[in-house]
Amino acid sequence: MPSTSPLPRPVPDPTARTAPGSARPAREWPLATDRLSLRPVVAADAEAFLGWRSRPDVVQFMYQPPWDRPTAETKLRTWSNAPFEEVGDVLVLAIEVDGAVVGEAMLKWAPGPRQAELGYGLHPDVTGRGLATEAARATLELAFTRYGFHRVYARIDEENLASVRVAERLGMRREAHLLENDLRDGVWSNEVIYALLDRELP
Q1: H helices within the chain, ranges in order?
Q2: Strands laid side by side in the 37-40 sheet
Q3: Ramachandran class of 66: left when φ > 0, alpha when ψ lies in -120 to 50, beta otherwise
Q4: Which of 198, 190, 193, 199 is nearest to 173 (CA)?
Q5: What is the DSSP string of 151-196?
Q6: What is the DSSP letter of 123?
Q7: Which residues sit opposite 177 in a β-bridge?
Q8: Is the separation of the CB atoms in 41 and 93 below 8 Å?
Q9: How many Cα atoms occupy the beta-carbon half-sphere of 82 within 13 Å?
Q10: Which residues pair with 193 in a beta bridge?
Q11: Residue 79 in 3-state DSSP?
Q12: Which of 61, 106, 154, 161 is most buried when burial is the number of CB atoms within 10 A of its CB?
């Protein structure tokens, strides 16, 4: 079994409030970029997430069926209270533009020493503007500088060309091409793996 090593954590401000089940002081958020802000999701984000997670054209590359409202409410309630402290934990961030939630970014604590998986998705209405790349870059910086991960990788269906382009714009290295390793809508699909090390962050 791969070993895991502890990650350095931000020093908490004893006066800052911490969400239940979380080791993240509230004052660390939001994470701002030129056009976006990112923050941990809250249960009230369910309605916004339903806007893209209910669409077959979006979730086909997430290897899951479209969400309905009860699913959205359950998922966001679970994610909003989830810790990010050990292998298997997931940090889900809401991506906001001008105060509106338009997408999501994800870090999953993966097996192996200081490894994490990156994920991202946007509502189709705001794609084509480079927002996914901007959000994913901020999430990579968060992984390396705040949480101390050594390697971050993304698993992408090879037909998801938009996500492949995002990974390449981020300077991520294509490490693997997996043949028929998963099922998408009942059909075997191929997957590519892109990765970046902490010292390679532009």
Answers
A1: 46-53, 56-59, 69-80, 131-141, 161-169
A2: 31-32, 37-40, 90-97, 100-110, 115-122, 151-157, 187-197, 173-184
A3: beta
A4: 193
A5: EEEEEEETT-HHHHHHHHHTTPEEEEEEEEEEEETTEEEEEEEEEE
A6: -
A7: 192
A8: yes
A9: 24
A10: 155, 176
A11: helix
A12: 154
| Nearest alpha-carbon partner for 165 in 139, 185, 136 | 136
Handedness of CA 136, 138, 139, 141 (dihedral sign): positive
pLDDT of residue 144: 97
| Whole-number Cα distances in Å, 140 to 25, 65, 144, 163 | 19, 27, 6, 15
Which DSSP category does 100 fall into? E
Reported pTM: 0.85
Cis-peptide into 30, omega within 30 deg: yes
Mean pLDDT of 95-119: 97
Determine how β-strand 151-157 pairs with β-strand 115-122: parallel
Picking from 80, 96, 88, the residue whose alpha carbon sits closest to that of residue 24 is 80
Q: Which residues contact 81 (CB under 8 A, 6 or more apart)?
A: 19, 20, 21, 22
Residue 133 near residue 100, CB atoms below 8 Å: no
Query: Could you say which DSSP state residue 109 is in?
Result: E
Angstrom distance (rounded) from CA 73 to CA 195: 32
Quote the radius of gyration of the chain (alpha carbons, Å): 17
Residue the block writes with tokens 């979380």: 22
The token pair at 181 is: 């390793």
Nearest to 184 by CA among 63, 66, 59: 63
Query: Would you say residue 72 has pLDDT above 90?
Result: yes
Q: Residue 12's CB: how many other CB atoms inside 10 A?
A: 13
pLDDT at residue 20, rounded to an integer: 33
